[in-house]
Amino acid sequence: MAGKKDELVYVDSKGKRVDGRKVEDLRPIKIEVGVIPQADGSAYLEWGQNKAFASVYGPRECLPKHSASPYKAVVKFNYRMATFSVPDRKNPRPGRREYEISKVCGEALERSIFVERFPNTQIDVTVELFDSNAGSRIAGLCAASVALADAGIPMRGLVCGTGVGKAGGKIIVDLDKTEEDAPDAVDIPLAIISNTKEVVLMQLDGILSKKEWQQAMKMGIDASLKVHEIQKAALKARYENVKGDDKK
Amino acid sequence: MAKRLVVPGELVTEERKKLGSHVYISEGKIYSDSIGLVDDESNFASVVPLEGKYLPQVNDLVLGVISSEKFAGYVVDINSFYPSFISKKELREMLKPGSVVSAKVLKVNELNEVDLGSIRTFFGGEILTISPVKIPRVIGRDCSMLNVLKAGTKSNLIVGKNGWIWAKGGDTDLLKKAIDKIGAEAHMSNLTQRMSDFLGVKQQKNDAEYIEETEEMDEYEGEE
After folding, report:
1. Does residue A90 register a pLDDT over 90?
2. Residue B56: partners with Cβ closer than 8 Å, 6 or more residues away
3. Secondary structure of chain A in the HEC alphabet?
4. Is residue B123 helix, strand or coil?
5. Mean pLDDT over residues B83-104, rounded?
6. Which positions in chain A touch B111 (Cβ < 8 Å)?
7. Residue B117 has pLDDT above 90, yes or no
8. What is the pLDDT of residues A183-230, one digit of tens each?
């Protein structure tokens, strides 16, 4: 460790991070599909310490009617955090941050869905976070995308993503809370459509040089595709695990 | 008959094939747009979906439940995006909210709103539900599955394409279990055989009829 006691080394000489991961490693991800029986589609996702439930209803009649579009289905994305999801109690009332995340995630999903096939309808997507520790919007978005596939809504591809950024002068993938709080931290939530690699969500706070930026994007897209493999496996597992009882 | 499970955005084929349902083209390759099964040996690049809502098509037989009465007719829920409407002119009897009707889809407009005709009302019985995309498996090739269900449970059945099944008489509890089993195992082959074992129905003479269907069912008539 460096001289001062409170100075963390984010990436040590062996390329290990604070929690023992390498720079390009993701936190462990677990996805379960079809957890909410009354929803048209649902998914539960654990991403490191993040825990998210996503449920999908629709396409169904768009209410209030003035919000409907005769050209496409409207995606109504709702991102909520439970009061106990962060160390200090979170006010259950949705704040600026939740409205913003709901908007950007809804727009990201709308790019992947064939919305023009369902005019005048709405697709409700609700993401509820029960535990959060950095990168929760991407966790919610990945869960929502799996839930949409489970609902049978036609899509160009699954939306997969990850956080990518800089801490301690090094470009790293999937920052956790300690890394996000680094003095020079840069955090980029990044989401792409799996097969076209079209970027559907990207936000950036902080400063990166052009070189760092190019490296971050490359690492981010590679890591997102790893997330996609996990999503795919989770969706398929639901059907592959069903065994006929009497195959003689 | 190897069938492959695909998720949205997964490659169906790089070959040039005729386009079936639930696929799209991007940069000359064919991709799936929903979770479903692909038959690689088929001439068509198509995906048989495993989940999804009912999208009304002309000439479908659907079941509906009356949700409210208006001055000139009834609002009827057909398990689609919007409720439909049937006029009192077409009916002889009075209906109440909760009444079950069957109807033919006469017209579907560009917003997927439905005009219904040839309405029949049903008394008693109950409605069982299954995902609308699994209705072809409930009927089976040449109604083979439907015949097994009828023989095994002695119920009267009307199967609506919107995922609702009206049943009266016979062993409806057993029927419900059977329908749930079809819903859970719809993606596996040789389902009719397993269902007839489940319901204790003796296999019929013609084995060839029990080869499972891979494509969407042809037209069928609802029968009592």
Report:
1. yes
2. B62, B78, B80, B105, B108, B112, B114, B162
3. CCCCCCCCCCECCCCCECCCCCCCCCCCEEEEECCCCCCCEEEEEEECCEEEEEEEEEEEECCCHHHCCCCCCEEEEEEEECCCCCCCCCCCCCCHHHHHHHHHHHHHHHHHECHHHCCCEEEEEEEEEEECCCCHHHHHHHHHHHHHHHCCCCECCCEEEEEEEEECCEEEECCCHHHHCCCCCEEEEEEEECCCCCEEEECCECCCCHHHHHHHHHHHHHHHHHHHHHHHHHHHHHHHCCCCCCCC
4. coil
5. 90
6. 70, 119-120
7. no
8. 889 999 999 999 899 999 999 988 999 999 999 999 999 999 999 999
Q: Given a cut of 70, is residue B215 above it in pLDDT? A: no
Q: For an interface test with A, which of B21, B46, B51 has the most A Cβ atoms less than 10 Å from its Cβ?
A: B51
Q: What pLDDT shows up at residue A243? A: 62
CATH numbers and ranges of domains, chain B: 5-49 (2.40.50.100), 61-122 (2.40.50.140), 126-223 (3.30.1370.10)
B125: which DSSP letter? -
The amino acid present at B215, given as its one-letter code, is E
Q: Are the C-beta atoms of B50 and B36 separated by less than 8 Å?
A: yes
In the numeric block, which tokens belong to residue B184?
């859970």
Provide the mean pLDDT of chain A.
91
Q: Measured between CB atoms, which of B5, B34, B188 is closest to A244? A: B188
Contact pairs from chain A to chain B, CB under 8 Å: 93
pLDDT band of residue B221 (cuts 50, 70, 90) is: very low
State ipTM: 0.87
- For residue A146, how many C-alpha atoms fall within 13 Å in the half-sphere facing its CB? 35
B interface toward A at CB cutoff 8 Å?
A: 5, 7-11, 22, 24, 26, 31, 33-35, 49-53, 81-82, 110-112, 131, 133, 184-185, 187-188, 190, 194, 197-198
User: pTM value?
Assistant: 0.89
- Per-residue confidence at A6, pLDDT binned at 50, 70, 90? low
> What contacts B25, CB < 8 A, 6 or more positions away?
B19, B31
DSSP-based three-state secondary structure for B29:
strand
Phi and psi at B4, nearest 5°, equal: -115, 140
- ∠ CA A62-A63-A69, rounded to 5°: 45
Sign of the alpha-carbon dihedral angle for B165, B168, B172, B178 = negative
Whole-number Å distance between alpha carbons of A220 and A199? 11
Q: Is the pLDDT of residue A4 over 60?
A: no
Domains of chain A, each with CATH number or no CATH: 29-247 (3.30.230.70)
